[in-house]
């Protein structure tokens, strides 16, 4: 009965966050942690925050050793040789496969703002913060320098590399890095356009925003809106479709964003999808109660063997052939 009330409470909270909410990365992380507490997870009964799957989500293994119990994990990203985890105020961690633990060997930039996102470009580590913009390290995290030339809004939501070009989503539009001039240029947007996700499909770039979906040819910058009146948390794509991750629904488009269909059926009602990945002809998503998987148009299947029950899967990435899922805070395996 207590668990049921907790689940209903989470659903009600998230329903109120739907559609047109001005949703910041910081607010989102705090809501994740609040939902974990409401679901009955307490500091006295902690279990894991990062899990790996070596068998395409059939089973999961706890890989949280080395991560402090009081951290807020904000993002997981991979380079060609490493898995990195960024935290709100506890710096950056790298996973060591020899010792099977996370090491806090990367220094934190000199900022009082939260580190929200992490990315990589030509051997450089790029960090996005909630108010101090971009920081870059060219020596694997030993030293950092601010890199905000050209950016008007310093709240960074996403970092994505497409076709050898770095894009960042901000609270004031989409920017790309002009490598020759070493400055950021506004690709599209205005002072109130929150770019919460960036992806590519065929020859187009798509962004998920608080105003819906916009798309443009990679070369022409001919931006047009392909979904209206829906606020998006993220956007993704696979080999066949583009996916719009709204705050209470999941949509897909097989015709490059011309039309969209709702594919939320089989997923928790009114709970949004955090991340979507394609692996071995399967679509995997991170949801509020764990990881779901489907092939083609088959039903969604919850694939949580080895994960704590009601695990908010806030990030989902692929490193080589390993699936990595994480939550923003430690989660119990309590039934």
Notes on the structure:
There is one protein chain. This protein has 335 residues and is mostly beta strands. The chain is 9% helix and 44% strand. It has helices spanning 2-16, 25-38; strands at 48-53, 61-62, 73-78, 83-87, 92-96, 101-106, 115-121, 124-129, 134-137, 145-146, 156-162, 165-170, 173-178, 183-188, 195-201, 204-209, 212-217, 224-227, 232-237, 242-246, 250-253, 261-262, 275-279, 282-287, 290-295, 301-302, 315-319, 322-331. The strands form 7 sheets. It has a 4-stranded antiparallel β-sheet with strand order 2-1-28-27. Strand 15 (195-201) and strand 16 form a beta hairpin. It is globular. The model is unreliable at 1-26 and 35-46 (pLDDT under 50).
Strand and helix map with partners:
Blueprint: H1 2-16, H2 25-38, E1 48-53, E2 61-62, E3 73-78, E4 83-87, E5 92-96, E6 101-106, E7 115-121, E8 124-129, E9 134-137, E10 145-146, E11 156-162, E12 165-170, E13 173-178, E14 183-188, E15 195-201, E16 204-209, E17 212-217, E18 224-227, E19 232-237, E20 242-246, E21 250-253, E22 261-262, E23 275-279, E24 282-287, E25 290-295, E26 301-302, E27 315-319, E28 322-331
Antiparallel strand pairs: 1-2, 1-28, 3-4, 4-5, 5-6, 7-8, 8-9, 9-10, 11-12, 12-13, 13-14, 15-16, 16-17, 17-18, 19-20, 20-21, 21-22, 23-24, 24-25, 25-26, 27-28
What portion of residues is helical?
under 10%
SS elements, strand count:
28
Our estimate of the beta-strand percent is 35-45%
What is the CA-based Rg, rounded? 19 Å
Major beta-sheet overview: 4 strands, antiparallel
Helical/strand content category: mainly beta
The spatial strand order of the largest sheet comes to 2-1-28-27
